[in-house]
From TrEMBL:
Pfam assignment, any one: SBP_bac_3
Organism: Paeniglutamicibacter cryotolerans
Domain annotation Solute-binding protein family 3/N-terminal: ranges: 65-296
UniProt keyword Signal, yes or no: yes
Record-linked InterPro entries: SBP_3_CS, Solute-binding_3/MltF_N
Sequence similarity: Belongs to the bacterial solute-binding protein 3 family.
Any one Gene Ontology cellular component term annotated for this protein: cell envelope
Cellular location(s): Cell envelope
Keyword Signal appears in the UniProt entry: yes
Signal peptide annotation: 1-29
Keywords in alphabetical order: Signal
The protein, known as: Polar amino acid transport system substrate-binding protein
SUPFAM superfamilies xref list: Periplasmic binding protein-like II (SSF53850)
Amino acid sequence: MNSIKRPLAVFSVAVATVFALTACTNASAEGSVAEAKSTDAGIQEKGVNEAARALPPAEIRDKGILTIASDPSYAPFEYFATDGKTMIGFEIDLTDHLAASLGLKPEHKAATFDTILPGLASGKFDVCMSSFGIRPERTKIVDFVPYLQGGTALGVTKGNPLDLHLEDNSMCGHAIGAQNGSIQALIQGPEFSKACTDAGKESIDLKTFPSQSDVNLALTSGRIEGMISTGSTLAYQGQQSGGKFEVASGPAYQPVGVGMAVKKGSELTKALRVAMRDLIDDPYYAKLYADWKIRPAT
């Protein structure tokens, strides 16, 4: 997770690799982003991708709207603006741009992370966009359109006074938080805890919370001693916290592709992949990275 200086070249390779590995199936952040740094102008200037426009299911084309679900507790990817109701962020701008490419109007819906995929399955949403790691257990139930790579990190209070890290069993016996429904809560947290007990140490006291904001608050209020989440989210939110918490040193854990989820077998998946490939070569894409201070993983 290194440089923002060459996002287009680095990410073009990363996405091409993910597309190739999945047979066309299927980050860190820094600094603050002013709401005035809107990319609406770039979105409005974006022309329709005619090749992609014809691909979505007829019911989506006919209604002219792309319904996108996100958990707005994941700054800088999606979060509420100061009005408390408008969602902004990297992934919001990205899906706005892709919707415009398909000749559709984006309609953003806020949802808690653990309800997003069930909402997709029920037809409530067309696309789920909330930093979903592309993992085997998820690809069994949804299709993905990749756009980033990222891994898990450990958030700790300023200065890391307990000297906690992800892979040295230093979390054993400590209260560690994660968001409901996340890979960190469902898979990685239990795996870390098992490594502790396998080594003859006390298990991790894994606590889960409805949103990432709730996890952050639990850490800063002393109810937990560390938290595991997407590294890019923790890095950005730690900086926005005024120094209340930070990311523990060490490499990202199990970096994977990150993608937007689409209903399994939907023609919308192909449409979004075509639009995404076109976007990678668009100067707007590099601007999107720069505006939100997103760095692709390397």
